[in-house]
Amino acid sequence: xxxxxxxxxxxxxxxxLIAIGYLNHVVERNKLxxxxxxxxxxxxxxRCGVVNETFPGxxxxxxxxxxxxxxxxxxxxxxxxVQKNDASLKAQITELNALIARGESIPVNNPPRPVLTxxxxxxxxxxxxxxxxxxxxxxxxxxxxGNEAKQWLKEVRHLLVVLHIEFFNHLxxxxxxxxxxxxxxxxxxxxxxxxxxxxxxxxxxxxxxxxDAQLARVNAQVLSDQQPATDEVNELxxxxxxxETDTDWKKKSIYD
Length: 256
What we know:
Layout: H1 3-54, H2 62-82, H3 87-100, H4 118-140, H5 146-177, H6 181-196, H7 205-226, H8 235-255
Helix pairs in contact: 1-2, 1-4, 2-3, 4-5, 5-6, 6-7
């Protein structure tokens, strides 16, 4: 074997090792990408499902329910491409397709969830943020057309305002029930400020008018509560009268 042939064999061996290493790298990278995609799609399916099932009934509409079902179906179909023999995914896709086929007649069984506390308000706000993220991602993936995505993002912002309106209303009513007009006034003031800070306050003119009316009633109640009762003995007033009498007596004693 000549030196040139040996050199060629060495070069070929090195090239083979490089090729094997590259192929191994590609295989590992594909495995990692497949695993990453599976985790991402699982998470998107879970998030859509949670919002779909637990979003407060007073804020859920058939159109929103349909959108969430479509988003969940899209993620499930993509996951099936990764896990091609998963029977549970196939069954889930069949179920979701049947719901989507009902269109606006899709059942909406979400129970109402009054926004009575700040914790509930934060939880619903988090759900709206989740929905916003899913819509944005679906538009980026090309699943939702741009115009449709923009309309839904606008609807999410509107639902956030409706959430705050309900929250401040409940805060005010609860405070009045507990005979705390000062706290009620604070709740209605926050409602007024929030609505006036919206990009288009006129959209919520009726709600703003109602907040203003409630605020005026509470202000009147607070002022009324601060007035001393005329038919009751006011200890402070009586004390001042006594002080004035004592002072007059002392002055008279000095000058006499």
